[in-house]
Design goal:
globular, about 45% helix, alpha/beta, 11 helices
Length: about 325
Amino acid sequence: MADISINIKKKLKRLSEKVAFLLQMLRIAWSPAYVLPLPPNHRFPMSKYEVLPEQLVHEGTVTHENFFAPDPLPEEWILKTHTADYWHKLSQLALTPQEVRRTGFPLTRELVAREIRIANGTLQCTRFALQQGVAMNIAGGTHHAFTNKGEGFCLLNDQAIAANYLLNENLAAKILIVDLDVHQGNGTAQIFCSEPRVFTFSMHGANNYPLIKEQSGLDIGLKDFTTNDFYLKTLEINLKHLLDQVEPDFIFYQAGVDILDTDKLGRLSITREGCKQRDRLVLEIAKRNKVPLVVCMGGGYSPDFKDIIEAHANTYRLAQEIFF
């Protein structure tokens, strides 16, 4: 009996050590379900969700232990953000052809399964961020999903779902969403237009998609061909102001890399180094103010795939440098 007791204590100690080890590392949501076959010549770079984690492991930025595979998102959390009618049509593959075209993806059961795992990845990241300051999702940032519709490669709004989870569970009282994709976070703005506990900040191309913008808590529309200097100064001033004004106890960051000068949909003139400095500003201000942060990748459509992967990889490299 004594030997059994000793063995149990050893196992519990090893388990405790492993938990402590995992709590000291950057946790990243990723699943093979994030990668879905698309029709030939589709403009969405789906393969980045496979190549990016491989690149991060290959270069030694992270190890396989950094990643966790999210489960499917329980329906109750979807329905706290999206309407029952929209979710029913989406889950039953009953969207109209026009509604399907608006999303940009062929509607399949595999696609819906992908979306609910990505959304739960962001939700689960919030728990890790509360423990260690930051967590990241290889996908997500689906900011064009409204309460009642999807568009622009976005079907479920992962950051909105995760923000509502934090509010419902009393894990946060004031949330700041920093959306730096080149396209306005119109869905996120619409979802939280009447929610004072969530402040939405979108800095985007003024003349870019969507043609009709929603009203965020703060919108900054940038002129075509905006360069690093103006972009970074504008961002820094407004981030500092928002931290003082909003006083958030949680931040979501949509880190789209379609701001790059190489991006075929971007129309800004931000270099890869400028994009990296953008990420540094957001990560450092969260770290300095001790505000938990969840980062999701957002868009990126540069013709040279390497530009997309390198810009996204920089976000993870900086997270390791700043937080760990």
